[in-house]
């Protein structure tokens, strides 16, 4: 055992010697990590690797910052009051909708406060109705004249109003009978259960959804007093009712009434027009015909969410100034000819028919807006209308609707014309646009509206028997021979006052 130990000890120096005799090349071949050559190459490789990693990280961070900056700019441009920025913003884009869903889109900051009272319970409601000083007896044509019916067997909702009847309707008298929609068997029929319900509605917030573009948006900041006082009536067609039922909860009461939250759904069966935009004008303009017992109404478009108590709205815009009709000034345009030009550029209706519409108005003496007029604009923001249902206001609404029925469904083109034709008989309050934007939150449509007629560029596209581009129940005044010579009419030049308009 001892001899074995000595032999192992004697062998150790030899092994050390063997290791020391190895040359540097052999050590490198064995992979020695700390050779002089390795010490020079290793840091260079490490630096290259670290540099590439850092470059990738920097490029990724810069790219993410660019994307984030673009998204933030997109959101900011939508909130901006600058015309150019608001023009490039697309609120219907998937990016904007995604950011809005994530809560990254700030709520719009309005440029001016709305001077409403602070307490709905403190509002004093006027007793009685505003006196009828001009029109004391207003009635409506319910059936067309026999002369017209002899050749036209299908009843039209707006009737077959002649040019002579139209001209006579602008002559304000104490007792008047005018066309005002709802010709017998012309469509837009309400269910008996809804007719019974609306008879009790003295104060109404009305809205409408047609062709399934929206779902009802629940109003906010509504006081208990207003909930008891107002009927919230959402007018819909059959297609919209089906769309609403498939997307939100619709409840039914024990009397058969349909509800979405605070909104009572009012179905209009048998839509009177081919064009959904024109159907939407029925509850919007003819609110007094749909709800004849109503004394005060506030109309809001279906894509709006009301955020101000309706009792405070009536106090601010009607009762405080002893007014009966209020509507907002358009954000960009004052002249109907500017608005018509914008409608053509945005393809809101057939361009040649808009031109024909404007030529008739120009022939009949409608001049572009100027500062000598007693109101700030000929063009309103028609999505919000506040009114007391007085005879003169009802007459104005009938005549306004008749223009929409005869010509284009773009009601902003007709408003100022009817004001012009009634002279000083119709009084209204046109409030600032920034106040208008403080009354609601605007939601995007569920889908884009489009119809073939919007893309028509030339009148020849309408030619041919049975053309599918012609509306069959509305806009017939554009196809009825006009009694004047429109060939000599030259439309006023228009200047694009806003890139967003």
Automatic annotation (TrEMBL):
Q: Lineage of this protein's species?
A: Eukaryota, Viridiplantae, Streptophyta, Embryophyta, Tracheophyta
Q: Which InterPro entries match?
A: TOD1_MUCI70 (IPR006852), TOD1_MUCI70_glycTrfase_dom (IPR048354)
What is the name attached to this protein's record?
Uncharacterized protein LOC116205031
Where do transmembrane segments lie in this chain? 55-76
Gene assigned in the entry: LOC116205031
Transcription regulation recorded as keyword: no
Per the UniProt record, one Pfam family is TOD1_MUCI70
Which intervals carry biased composition (Basic and acidic residues)?
A: 15-30
Q: Provide the TOD1/MUCI70 glycosyltransferase-like domain boundaries.
A: 138-445
Q: Where is this region: Disordered?
A: 1-32
Give UniProt keywords alphabetically.
Answer: Membrane, Transmembrane, Transmembrane helix
Composition bias (Polar residues) maps to 1-11
């Amino acid at each position: 055992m001892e001899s074995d130990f000595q032999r192992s000890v004697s062998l150790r120096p030899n092994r050390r010697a063997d290791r020391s005799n190895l040359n540097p090349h052999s050590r490198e071949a064995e992979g020695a990590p700390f050779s002089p050559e390795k010490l020079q190459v290793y840091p260079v490789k490490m630096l290259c690797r670290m540099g590439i990693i850092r470059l990738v990280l920097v490029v990724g961070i810069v790219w993410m910052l660019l994307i984030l900056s673009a998204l933030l700019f997109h959101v900011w441009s939508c909130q901006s009051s600058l015309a150019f920025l608001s023009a490039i913003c697309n609120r219907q884009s998937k990016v904007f909708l995604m950011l809005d869903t994530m809560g990254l889109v700030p709520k719009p900051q309005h440029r001016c406060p709305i001077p409403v009272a602070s307490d709905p319970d403190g509002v004093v409601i006027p007793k009685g109705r505003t006196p009828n000083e001009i029109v004391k007896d207003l009635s409506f044509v319910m059936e067309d004249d026999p002369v017209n019916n002899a050749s036209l067997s299908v009843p039209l909702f707006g009737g077959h109003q002649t040019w002579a009847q139209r001209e006579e309707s602008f002559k304000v008298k104490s007792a008047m009978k005018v066309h005002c929609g709802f010709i017998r068997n012309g469509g837009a029929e309400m269910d008996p259960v809804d007719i019974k319900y609306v008879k009790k509605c003295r104060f109404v917030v009305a809205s409408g959804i047609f062709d399934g573009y929206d779902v009802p948006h629940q109003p906010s900041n509504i006081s208990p007093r207003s909930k008891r006082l107002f009927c919230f009536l959402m007018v819909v067609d059959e297609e919209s009712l089906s769309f609403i039922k498939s997307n939100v909860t619709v409840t039914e009461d024990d009397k058969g009434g349909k509800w979405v939250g605070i909104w009572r759904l009012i179905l209009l069966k048998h839509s009177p027009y081919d064009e959904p935009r024109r159907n939407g004008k029925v509850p919007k303009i003819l609110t007094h015909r749909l709800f004849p017992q109503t004394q005060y109404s506030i109309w809001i478009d279906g894509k709006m969410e009301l955020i101000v108590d309706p009792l405070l709205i009536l106090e601010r815009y009607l009762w405080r100034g002893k007014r009966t009709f209020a509507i907002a000034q358009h954000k960009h345009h004052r002249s109907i000819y500017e608005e018509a030009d914008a409608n053509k550029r945005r393809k809101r209706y057939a361009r040649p028919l808009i031109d024909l519409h404007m030529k008739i108005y120009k022939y009949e003496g409608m001049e572009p807006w100027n500062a000598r007029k007693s109101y700030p604009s000929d063009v309103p923001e028609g999505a919000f209308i506040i009114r007391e249902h007085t005879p003169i206001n009802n007459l104005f609404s009938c005549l306004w609707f008749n223009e929409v029925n005869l010509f284009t469904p773009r009601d902003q083109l007709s408003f100022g014309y009817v004001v012009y034709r009634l002279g000083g008989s119709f009084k209204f309050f046109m409030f600032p646009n920034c106040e208008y934007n403080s009354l609601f939150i605007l939601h995007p449509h569920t889908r884009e509206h489009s119809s073939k007629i919007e893309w028509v560029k030339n009148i020849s596209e309408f030619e041919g028997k049975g053309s599918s581009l012609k509306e069959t129940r509305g806009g017939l005044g554009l196809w009825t021979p006009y009694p004047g010579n429109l060939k000599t009419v030259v439309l006023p030049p228009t200047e694009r006052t806003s890139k967003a308009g």
